[in-house]
Write a structure and sequence with these properties.
Elements (H helix, E strand, L loop, with lengths): L3 H8 L1 H8 L2 H8 L4 H28 L3 H28 L4 H6 L4 H16 L2 H25 L7 H8 L1 H20 L2 H27 L7
Helix pairs in contact: 2-11, 3-8, 4-5, 4-7, 4-8, 4-11, 7-8, 7-11, 8-9, 8-10, 8-11
């Protein structure tokens, strides 16, 4: 039996390729993405990271060994503290005031994604919780690597590109994949199927998040 990560990546490869082809990511690589769209994305991503940290913390509490507790508790800290620090730097650079960020609600896509991750981490088993969290790690890393490989000279978004294409981030991704593959190997067929479903759902929500950022997605009733 192939590793869970290999199987789930191949099963969802067309979706990943559609994600790479999104106008947001194409224009980000070319350096032509509008500042308005990038700022919309940054605000929503900063909101997202708080919820992602909560979901990671829940997964840490469900870990089957001490190493898992540390691995995902540290990932939660990274999401909430370190990445938000990075986002804060971008927000200063792009003129997003703290009160503007605080007053901006989660977009429908961001709300959907974060609600799913928190619910999945609380209600599902440890392996299924991690499978739902994996796309944010893995797809971000691979999108970052792809954009880095073709990023335009003097790209105004190069700092973002470098962060998610960097080796530190990819090393963390490999660690998460190794944990998930270990759990999937010991899991029964029904659990592996739920893991695959959770991964697919989050991968679809990754696509929706970037698509929403490009469209400046907001609540149609507000």
């Amino acid at each position: 039996m192939s590793a869970f990560s290999t199987a789930v990546w191949q099963a969802n490869l067309p979706l990943f390729e559609r994600t790479l082809a999104l106008p947001f990511n194409q224009e980000l690589a070319a350096g032509t993405l509008s500042a308005e769209r990038f700022c919309h994305y940054m605000i929503q991503d900063a909101h997202y990271l708080v919820a992602y940290g909560r979901a990671l913390a829940v997964a840490a509490a469900k870990a089957d060994n001490a190493e898992g507790v540390v691995q995902f508790a540290q990932a939660a800290q990274e999401a909430v503290v370190e990445e938000r620090k990075l986002h804060g730097g971008f927000m200063r650079d792009f003129g997003i005031a703290p009160d503007t960020f605080a007053a901006t609600p989660l977009s429908p896509a961001c709300h959907h994604y974060t609600s799913f991750l928190i619910a999945n981490s609380w209600s599902e088993s440890y392996p299924v919780a991690l499978a739902g969290l994996l796309p944010c790690f893995w797809i971000y890393a691979e999108v970052g690597r792809d954009i880095h490989s073709r990023s335009a000279a003097n790209n105004p978004y190069q700092a973002w590109v470098d962060t998610y294409a960097g080796e530190d981030f990819h090393a963390a991704v490999r660690g998460v994949i190794a944990t998930i593959d270990r759990l999937a190997e010991a899991a029964d067929a029904a659990t592996r199927e739920r893991m695959a479903q959770a991964y697919r759902y989050s991968a679809e929500l990754e696509w929706m998040f970037w698509d929403s950022a490009y469209r400046l997605g907001s609540w149609p009733t507000r």
